[in-house]
Every structure is written in C-alpha cells, then in structure tokens.
C-alpha cells in the first residue's frame, strides 16, 4: 500500500507522536487522563487516520464478501456499520474489519499493517466476479468520538474542536474489554475467546472459511481460552509488554495483550488466558503482579443506535 498521508492533527500544540502500531497519529496532546474523560463524555475526537481504508466496489460485492467473511452481509443496509473476520481454514482469526456499504461500494477499515495481506487475499478470491478492491486511505480517515466512523480526510485539517490522543481511545477500549487484532490476539485466537462471536460472527450462516470450527466450538461451549481484564499492581512504574507471559503459581497460563493506565481503574491490561483461570485469581503479568477482574465490563460510552447514526452521517457525507 502507498504510505498514508500525514495527519494535520499531529501539528496541534502538545501533540506527542504514538509508537507502533499506532505510529502516524498522536498518542496524546499533553494531558492523557483529561483526554480520556473528555472522550468518555463524547466531548473530543480521536484521530485514527493511520488505519487503512479499503473500498470494495461492484454489483457482486456484498454476496462475494458474504461468502468470505464471518458476517451476514447480503442484506446489509446502506450506512450501517458492522464487524467481520477473515478466518484461517482452522478457524483462527486472520483479519478484523469494520465495514459499511454506502449503496455504491463497501468501505472497510482495518488494523495498521494488515491491509496488504487482506487485499492480496481478497484479490486471490475474486475469480470472475464483478468486484474491485482499492485502497482509498488517501481519501478517507477513521476517527472516534468515541464511536468509530469515517470522514473525508480533508476534514481533519478543518477540525478545530477538542481532540484526544489514541492513548485515550485505547484506555477506554481496554476498560470495555474490547480486543484488538494483533495486540490482544495471536495466531491461534478463535472468535469465541475474545468476544467476537457476538459482534463479528453470524452463527446462522455457513460456507465461509473456518466455519466448521466456529460451529463446533460454539456447540461444545468450551473455547480453550478467554479474554480477561487484569488489574495491575499500581506500585510498579512499568506496564507489562504486549505478548508477555501470564503466570499462575509458576505455570504459564496466557499472554498479556494491551496494557494501559485508565483514569478511573488505574493500570489495567487485557490478557488471553486459559479458561480454567477463574475471576479474582492472582497472577503475574510479565514482572507485574495482577488480579483477574471479577466485575462487569465498563462499556464503551456509545450506544449502538448512536454509533449507527454517527457512522451513517460520517460515511455518507460527500466532499
């Protein structure tokens, strides 16, 4: 893919560039906790324009994607956002997409660094169907306020309202136990383990790659691992690294995903652990003492109706 255009919001006063995989946007603008609070209240915009945006056009686009992805897409209403996965033949998650159809084409945004492999897969599966896959990241930008939506990239320069860095978005995401591909997943992750069965998989459709595994694990009701929220020892100045071992009584029981400092919860992390690890268990996350949360998840502060309305407005606006 072509390099993404630089974002004008990195020129805002106090902007601190984010590290990979979020390089290219601001981690924060000088006050991470205040930015979290503003974002949670819906009073700030997060620049996520480092996320690649793909366009899938052609009259066969929805039926074709329906046959490849985990989501039911043949009757997807224009402007309504949904999530979908590409699975391996063994049912492991390979790609995670946020997508919507604008009546003329599907627009999808994906994790940084994954677009090339996804485009290669889609084009390999194109055959003689009337579809065309293109990279439109130079035209569209992903933002969150806090729900995800697309806006014309030119509008970023015109935005003069409050902003929050990607660190604020990540903190709210972790508190809501919402996974992120490549950070909170590995090459063995099944949709059931991280909650994507309810948001990105349609259980009443079949005939996509990996579907047999999805159905079998769902019917057995016993995925081997589960995503949990860890409360980390606040006396440790360092957060555990993504991919660090989670250890219980000297035995490795999982891996650390995203670790953040939340404005209310303090230092917390997502972790993918064996299903036998119970709520409230004491663990080590890398070198940091941790405890599995036993409280209901914080929800991302946006209702599905509000997100759908914001998505429709952002997606369907034209320059």
CATH class of the domain at 224-297: Mainly Beta
Shape: globular
Q: Residue ranges: pLDDT <50 for 5 or more in a row?
A: 299-319
- Give the distance, in angstroms, between the N- and C-terminal Cα atoms: 24 Å
Q: Helix/strand-derived class? A: alpha+beta
Q: What is the arithmetic mean of pLDDT? A: 91
CATH homology superfamily name of the domain at 224-297: Aminomethyltransferase beta-barrel domains
Topology, element by element:
Blueprint: E1 16-17, E2 26-28, H1 32-40, E3 45-47, E4 53-57, H2 61-68, E5 82-87, E6 93-101, E7 105-110, H3 115-124, E8 132-135, E9 140-144, E10 148-152, H4 154-158, E11 163-164, H5 166-175, H6 196-199, H7 211-220, E12 225-232, E13 245-248, E14 251-262, E15 266-274, E16 282-285, E17 288-292, H8 304-316
Parallel strand pairs: 3-11
Antiparallel strand pairs: 1-2, 3-9, 4-7, 4-8, 5-6, 6-7, 9-10, 12-15, 12-17, 13-14, 13-16, 14-15, 16-17
Helix pairs in contact: 1-5
Q: What does the model show?
A:
With 319 residues, the chain is of the alpha+beta class. 22% of the residues lie in helices and 29% in strands. It has 8 helices and 17 strands. Strands 12-15-14-13-16-17 form a 6-stranded antiparallel beta barrel. The chain has a 5-stranded antiparallel β-sheet with strand order 5-6-7-4-8, with helices on one face. Strand 9 (140-144) and strand 10 form a beta hairpin. Helix 1 (32-40) packs across helix 5 (166-175). The longest helix has 13 residues, at 304-316. The relative contact order is 0.16.
């Amino acid at each position: 893919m072509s390099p993404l255009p630089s974002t004008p919001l990195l020129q805002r006063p106090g902007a601190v560039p984010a590290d990979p995989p979020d390089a290219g946007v601001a981690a924060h603008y000088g006050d991470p906790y205040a930015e979290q609070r503003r974002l949670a209240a819906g009073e700030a915009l997060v620049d996520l324009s480092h996320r690649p945006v793909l366009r899938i056009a052609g009259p066969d686009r929805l039926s074709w994607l329906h046959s490849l992805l985990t989501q039911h897409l043949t009757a997807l209403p224009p402007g309504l956002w949904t999530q979908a996965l590409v699975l391996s033949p063994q049912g492991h998650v390979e790609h995670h997409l946020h997508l919507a159809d604008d009546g003329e084409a599907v627009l999808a945004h994906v994790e940084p660094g994954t677009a090339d492999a996804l485009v290669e897969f889609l084009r390999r599966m194109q055959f003689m169907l009337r579809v065309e896959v293109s990279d439109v990241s130079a035209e569209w930008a992903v933002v969150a306020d806090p729900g995800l939506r697309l806006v014309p990239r030119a509008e970023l320069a015109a935005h003069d309202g409050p902003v929050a860095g990607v660190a604020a978005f990540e903190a709210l995401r972790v508190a809501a136990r919402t996974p992120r591909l490549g950070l909170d997943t590995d090459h063995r992750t099944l949709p059931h383990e991280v909650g994507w069965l309810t948001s990105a998989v349609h259980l009443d459709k079949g005939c996509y790659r990996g579907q047999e595994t999805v159905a079998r694990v769902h019917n057995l009701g016993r995925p081997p691992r589960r995503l949990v929220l860890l409360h980390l020892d606040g006396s440790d100045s360092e957060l555990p690294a993504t991919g660090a071992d989670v250890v219980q009584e000297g035995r490795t029981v999982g891996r650390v995903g995203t670790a953040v400092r939340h404005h209310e919860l303090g230092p917390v992390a997502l972790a993918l652990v064996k299903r036998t690890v119970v709520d409230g268990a004491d663990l080590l996350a890398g070198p940091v003492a941790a405890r599995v949360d036993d409280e209901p998840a914080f929800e991302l502060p946006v209702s599905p109706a509000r997100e759908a309305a914001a998505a429709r407005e952002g997606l369907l606006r034209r320059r």
